[in-house]
């Protein structure tokens, strides 16, 4: 594994899922908590608000606007797209 932002995010997702899983042991959950902390906690997730820093903001805004106006997108999806657009 190369430890790109996406790799780290995927690791964090797996450990976060383990913490929520009622079928895993407390030892396993403690290990996942330690790994999440070492990965950077909430900043380990690829969806961090700086995720658009390397992308063309006009294209990102255009995609979000398209999602907001797309009839095939759910109302909650449109709301999330609007929120992201507002936070740009």
Short description:
This protein is mostly helical and 88 residues long.
What would your notes on this structure say?
The protein has 88 residues and is an all-alpha fold. It contains four helices and no strands. Helix 1 (5-20) packs antiparallel against helix 2 (26-39). The two termini are 31 Å apart.
Give the fraction of residues assigned to helices. Answer: 55-70%
Number of beta-strand segments: 0
Instruction: Using the CA coordinates, give the radius of gyration.
Output: 17 Å
CA-based shape: elongated
Query: H/E element string?
Result: HHHH
Please tell me the overall pLDDT.
84
What share of residues are in beta strands? under 5%
Which consecutive residue ranges, at least 5 long each, have pLDDT under 50?
A: none
For the record, give the distance between the C-alpha atoms at the N and C termini, rounded to a whole number: 31 Å
Label the structural class: mainly alpha
Question: Key terms for this structure?
Answer:
88 residues, mainly alpha, 4 helices, 0% strand
């Amino acid at each position: 594994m190369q430890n790109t932002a996406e790799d780290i995010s995927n690791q964090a997702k797996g450990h976060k899922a383990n913490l929520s899983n009622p079928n895993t042991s407390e030892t396993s959950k403690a290990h996942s908590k330690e790994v999440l902390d070492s990965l950077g906690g909430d900043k380990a997730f690829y969806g961090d608000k700086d995720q658009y820093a390397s992308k063309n903001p006009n294209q990102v805004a255009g995609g979000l606007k398209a999602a907001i106006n797309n009839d095939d997108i759910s109302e909650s999806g449109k709301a999330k797209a609007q929120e992201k657009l507002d936070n740009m």
